Amino acid sequence: MPRLSFILTAAMLSAFGLIASDVYLPAMPSMATEFGIADWQMPQTISFYLLALAIAQLAYGPLSDRNGRKPVLLAGIALYIVGSQSARPRALSLAVR
């Protein structure tokens, strides 16, 4: 059973980044209205998110080899939560999400 839980955990964590953007996309028009920004500015948040996701993958590999996978994984999830909670102001949202 431990092997099955490891496989399920790895599969869920692999899909974490993709699910985050897929859940976000349908809400973009409502978010633009809520934050008071133009509709053309909302797709920039997805671009920044995907760029950060790509760069983070390059950094997380060596970090997890050096420090262990669990601490790096928990730190990444904590950073994601903090970034998601800082929705205002817009510039900060783009930088940390």
UniProtKB/TrEMBL annotation:
Subcellular location per UniProt equals: Membrane
Q: Which PROSITE patterns match?
A: MFS
Q: Tell me which Pfam families the record gives.
A: MFS_1 (PF07690)
Classification via InterPro entries = MFS, MFS_dom, MFS_trans_sf
Query: Is the keyword DNA-binding in the record?
Result: no
Q: Which residues form the Major facilitator superfamily (MFS) profile domain?
A: 3-97
- For this UniProt entry, which segments traverse the membrane? 44-63
Principal localisation? membrane
| Keywords noted in UniProt | Membrane, Transmembrane, Transmembrane helix, Transport
Say if the entry is tagged with keyword Methyltransferase.
no
Its cellular-component GO annotations read: plasma membrane
Query: A Gene Ontology biological process annotation?
Result: xenobiotic detoxification by transmembrane export across the plasma membrane
* Topological type in the membrane: Multi-pass membrane protein
**GO MF terms on file?**
transmembrane transporter activity
How is this protein named in the record? Answer: Major facilitator superfamily (MFS) profile domain-containing protein
Source species, please? Rhizopus delemar
